[in-house]
Structures are given as C-alpha cells and as structure tokens.
Design brief:
With about 400 residues, the chain is α+β, with helices and mostly antiparallel strands. It is built from nine helices and 17 strands. The chain has a seven-stranded antiparallel beta sheet.
Length: about 400
C-alpha cells in the first residue's frame, strides 16, 4: 500500500464515523502511523523522579526506535536516539539504570552523559569525535513530568505547558516515587486502544469496579447539584472549570462520585501519605495527549496509561503508579491493593479491545457512527488522527514535488 492508497483511505472516512478497515489492520498503515504520528508528536515518557541522580537513565522504545533519557552531571535531563554512531547498535538495554558513561556493548564506543563521543575504539587520532556525538531529541519537563519528541516538526510545546503546569503542580510530583510499572500486550491496533480510552459508554457494563468512584467526565451533567458544588469550589480557588484543550492535548479536573475520596476499589484512599492535602476536594485531574496517553492524578496517587504500537494488531500498554516518596509500603499502602482497580480495568479493556479488533478485521466490518455525545472524544481523536495523517502526506508530497523540480 503506497502513500496515495493511504491518502485515499483517509479521504474515504465519513464524518462522525469510525475508520476504514485497512487503517486498523494493515502493516503498511502501522509503519505509516509510526512515521506520521509517533515520530512527529510529543510523547509522555517518564516522571522526573525516575531519573533521580547524575547518570540515571531510562531506555525505551518509541515504535521501532530506541531512545534514552539521561540525567546529566549538571542535573539536566537530555534525550538521545539510543543508537551508536559507529555501526548503529542499540547502546543501553531497555529499562532503567545508572552509568558514568554511555558505552556501546558492541565495539565499546563511549559517550558522556551529555552525549559527546569520548571514546572511539579503533579510530585514528585525527578522527573528528565532535561530529559523532549521540543524536539528540527534544525533551520538555512540566512539574515533574517528562515529554519527548523525535522530530523538530513536533507541535509547539508552550501552550500545553501553560495550560497544564498550574494544574499538575499542586500534586508535588517531584516529591513522589514510582512504585509499580505494568506492561500489557493487547492484540488490537493502537487506535482501537485509544478509542476505548476516550469513552466510557462501555463503563457501566465493562468496568463496574471503576464506576464506584468515576463520574463519567465525557458526558458530565453540570446541572447536577454535586457537580455544581464541585465546579464552584474550583472557581473559588481560581482553577479553570473547563478542560484546557489544544489540538493535541487536554487537561482538567473532574468530580468523583459523592462521598468518594479516590479512585480505588472501595472509594477510600489506598495511600495514607497523600501527595498534597490541598487537592482532596479537587476530584481527579485528567490529562491526555491525543496520540497515546490518558493519565489521572488523585490526592493519594497518580496513574498513567499510555499505548505504543508493536504492529498493526498489537499494542503495548504501559501503566505506572506514583505515590509520595515518604509513603512506606506495608505501612502507608499495600501495593497489591493500590494496583487492583486499574489492573482490573486494564484487563477488562484487553478483552474489549481484542473483540473490537476481531470484528474490525472481519469480512463483515463497515465503519459505524460514533454516538454524538458519549463518544464525542473518540470522534475528536479520530478527526485528529485523520487531519495529522493527511497533513503529513500532503507535506511529503510537496517536498517530493519540489525535489523533482
């Protein structure tokens, strides 16, 4: 499938409808999605506390591309393509660690924490080391959260920072610690995983445990007395009562059910040492990036959910739990209890997205209409995907025409 075929599929998509089948099922579109979406947009990569010391690193994959975040000797966080400038080997294995230098295990080329090539085995003395440092990627930090972009073509970051920082800073994430990182492989396309995360029309039946605490923020009745009182409290504190939204991001507070303190199996706090007492009346803070993540901050913990395509029909789902750094396991929290609600929810979503993939891949599939209200955020996501994909193809076609001239 060439670029023109993909472009025609994008044009074929009817307004207010799901995507044509091939956009959910084919290897060619998977490769295209990496190039047009994941390599060109901001990715929530980590919490800053996961890189506590000079030399701390976090190595991960974005699509087929290994990257690494490193805490430099000066305390900055830099990001690099995790690819040796000698013959291209992946340098640091996926995961976390700490090092004094970044050393390639293949031929022992070594780099400083700032990415400079400092040791080039087998090369002559006059070899220009300055020209072969690690290739840098964009890194931005917001109140303890870390984002990366592999391309200079990524959207302007400042509007997201200005909208999100006043909201998330109340949760003191720099005083937190990550206590669990779950990875699940869903046998479904990443877009189906994200559509599922963008609506809660399935929650009453699909997530009964979650519904104990969750007010459906996608279809919130603002005239309900409980919700009116909640938004009145936000206004008193000078907090925006509407979600702060840009084309590729959204952030805002949503009420919990009456009498509920946190999103847990019983509605009470699962962590006795709160991130900040001052956020106890603020429901939950939800923030999302269109391409891949949906995250929640509560008084006692923060939960993050992000997807990464593995192939056309498989998606790796990352979930992390952050609590206050002084919370003691076994005293202030039980890790199994803390994990239970979202691990239960994630496992339920595995089933839902996988039956979605089976149906979408069948001979009987035709795109169907989104529910106007309950699935409006799904439609927003799909509209965004189509706009970004078409823009990428149009820009590339223009570049190719210019090159031909």
């Amino acid at each position: 499938m060439n670029s023109e075929n993909i472009y025609q599929l994008l044009l074929k998509r009817k307004p207010h409808y799901t995507l044509p089948q091939e956009l959910y099922t084919t290897d060619e579109v998977h490769d295209f999605d990496l190039q047009s979406i994941f390599y060109r947009h901001w990715i929530f990569a980590a919490f800053e506390v996961e890189l506590p010391n000079s030399g701390s690193y976090l190595s991960m994959m974005i699509g087929n591309t290994p990257i690494v975040l490193v805490r430099t000797r000066g305390g900055d966080i830099k990001g690099f393509f995790n690819t040796c400038r000698h013959r291209g080997a992946q340098i640091l294995a996926d995961g976390q660690g700490r090092c004094q230098r970044i050393v390639c295990p293949y031929h022992q080329w070594s780099y400083s924490l700032e990415g400079e090539l400092v040791g080039a085995t087998g090369m002559d003395e006059d070899f220009e080391r300055k020209s072969f440092g690690l290739r840098e990627i964009q890194v931005e930090r917001v109140a303890g959260t870390v984002y990366v972009a592999l391309s200079s073509d990524a959207p302007e970051f400042t509007p997201f920072r200005e909208a999100f920082e006043p909201l998330i800073s109340r949760y003191n994430l720099l005083d937190g610690k990550v206590v669990h990182h779950q990875k699940i492989v869903e046998n479904a396309n990443w877009k189906l995983a994200m559509e599922n995360a963008r609506e809660c029309a399935h929650c009453d039946v699909g997530h009964p445990e979650l519904c104990l605490s969750l007010v459906n923020g996608f279809t919130l009745d603002r005239n309900d007395p409980h919700n009116l009182a909640f938004y009145s409290e936000l206004a008193k504190r000078g907090i925006p009562t509407d979600h702060q939204e840009g084309k590729w991001y959204s952030a805002g507070h949503v009420p919990l059910q009456p009498g509920i303190k946190s999103m847990t199996m019983d509605g009470n706090y699962d962590v006795r040492k709160l991130l900040n007492d001052d956020v106890a009346a603020l429901g939950y803070l939800r923030w999302s990036l269109q391409s891949h993540c949906y995250n929640i901050a509560l008084p006692d913990y923060v939960f993050t959910f992000s997807v990464m395509p593995l192939n056309a029909k498989q998606t790796l789902v990352h979930s992390k739990w952050l609590v206050h750094k002084d919370a003691v396991e076994g005293e202030d929290y039980d890790i199994e209890k803390l994990r239970r609600l979202w691990e239960t929810t994630n496992n339920q979503d595995v089933y839902l997205t996988e039956i979605n993939q089976k149906g979408v891949g069948s001979a009987g599939y035709e795109p169907g209409p989104y529910m106007p209200e309950a699935e409006s955020w799904c439609e927003r996501f799909t509209d965004w995907y189509c706009d970004e994909a078409k823009s990428f193809l149009e820009k590339r076609a223009g570049s190719e025409l210019q090159a031909a001239e």
